[in-house]
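Calcineurin-like phosphoesterase domain-containing protein: structure, please.
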Amino acid sequence: MGNRWSRKADHVELNFEKLLTEQRLEKERKETKMKGLITNELQLNAENAVNRPDETGKWLKFVVISDTHCQMDQLMEKIPDGDVLVHCGDFTNSGGEEAVREFNEQLEKLPHRYKIVVPGNHDTDFDTREKYRSSASSTQTVRLLTEPTILLDSSINIEGIKIYGSPWVPLCGDATFYVPAGEEMQEKWAKIPEDLDILITHGPPLGYLDRSERGEHCGDADLLDAVQLKNPKYHLFGHIHERYGAMTNGKTTFRNAAQCTLWGKICRLPIVFYMKVPDGNDGSTWKSYTKFEEIDK
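Here you go.
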């Protein structure tokens, strides 16, 4: 009959070798893509902004936060007024009815006319893929977040400013909003529209505000390709707690708005920027394109 435990050990060893090979190839791919990247650090002004209105016409003030991890109460008094509030994900630690309800109530207290949320990998109830829709309670929890527009691979137009949001981050486990690098992730980013003003993702692209405490660039190489192809004016994200700040490549301004430090303590201010409303815009299309009713099917 042979030794079934030996066969099992061989299988585990083969899988481990395959994983190491994949990690090595991905590291080499990232190193190649990093060569020649333009990564200029931007200084924030007293308003924690990289720009301010400098022309006539109407401007919208964007206030950006991310990775609040059930600690919005510590941030509420520090969030400045504005027109659009953006949260780039991880507003909870692991989802759940109580955490989502509390977050929604906190958003209701803020004065911003428009509110946008892109969930993160910790917001476990919002991944609509079949294997993560574990119970009816998840569906009910999602429906508690009524205050913002939720963007999951979807777009919105606010007074002529075109915005797209997507939550995916490169695979580092079988978990919420994780997708393998390569073809599957490329399919996600292929949905990003042309002629985009603002891209919101949970995680960063490779090379931009993505360096971990260990010095590794943890950003998404496939997302970098998409950003370089589509050239949004702004790319907003969080996920990497260690690298809050702003950078530019000359075409896109990148903002990592993670409020928490690596150790989970909120100690940063929301990030601010301004965008001019286009002349003769078609007005605002203000609704969520996420069809949460499909979760029930």
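Notes: The CA atoms of residues 156 and 163 lie 5 Å apart.
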